[in-house]
Amino acid sequence: MKRVLVTGGSRGIGAATVKAFAEKGHRVAFIYHTNHAAATRVAAETGALPFSCDLADTAALDAVWPQIVAALGGAPEILVNNAGVSDTRLSRDVDDATWQRLLNTNLTAAFALCRLAQVSMIANGWGRIVNIGSMWGKVGASMEVAYSAAKAGLRGLTMALAKELGPSGITVNCVEPGVIQTDMNSCYDEATLAALADETPLCRLGTPEDVAAAVAFLASNEAAFITGQCLGVDGGFAI
Ligand code: NDP
User: Fold this and answer.
1) What is the per-residue pLDDT across 154-202, written as a single tens digit (0 to 9) for each?
2) Sheet with 49-52: strands ordered across
3) E strand residue ranges, the chain
4) Whose CA is closest to atom 46 on ligand 1?
5) pTM for this one?
6) Is 34 a pocket residue for ligand 1 (Cβ < 6 Å)?
7) 182 pocket-lining for ligand 1 (C-beta < 6 Å)
């Protein structure tokens, strides 16, 4: 049994990840933003402990961290930086506030949590960090420049931290989903989603469970010799 923290655990990929860890008998806490109803549902289904916090605000994160550690009975041994937000517009229309919100939520919060969580991981000589990037961080998405830049930043964060923390028994990896059926893609109509499935070599959209399975594997003992990797879970979309 390990102590696990998943960010963005109230919906989509994060909720599936919370369930996957809870089913394996781990003690799980998760952070969400404002969707209390969804968070309550996930908590009731899994027994995981929900914490509301705006991850775009590192002061808020610093304030909630001791509460999470106390509720879990110790600092997380497995950290999944999954929370994210996307934004679609021409790059010339990306204002400073939007750029900052995208960078803060997708990248800076992940770094801040790695900084907090590594202290006890180093002391214990064991830890697992899994960052949820995106295939757009690898190949770039038109009209998603802030999102693509933040997710590309997670690649660098993953590789650098893997080198720094490897000697302390901590692995750091990144999972890069393709098009996954979650609220994040609810802006697309049926025809667009069908076209995206067509573009995917495996001929379908991904499910949150497809991604959660990869996260659970990277956090397992079977993945003990894997670090600094960016694993596409995209049905082959970004080959
Ligand atoms: P969803 O939009 O379904 O869920 C987002 C989750 O993040 C929710 O739990 C939400 O909380 C939380 N969240 C968002 N902003 C904040 C914030 N400021 N502070 C705290 N929590 C926040 O996302 P997905 O499940 O689709 O995506 C999960 C991850 O996977 C993201 O990093 C995303 O970029 C990545 N990804 C997703 C893809 C897809 O096709 N869906 C493709 C590639 C990558 P609340 O419920 O309270 O709003």
Assistant:
1) 999 999 999 999 999 999 999 999 999 999 999 999 999 999 999 999 9
2) 49-52, 27-32, 3-7, 78-81, 127-132, 170-177, 230-233
3) 3-7, 27-32, 49-52, 78-81, 127-132, 170-177, 230-233
4) 35
5) 0.99
6) yes
7) yes
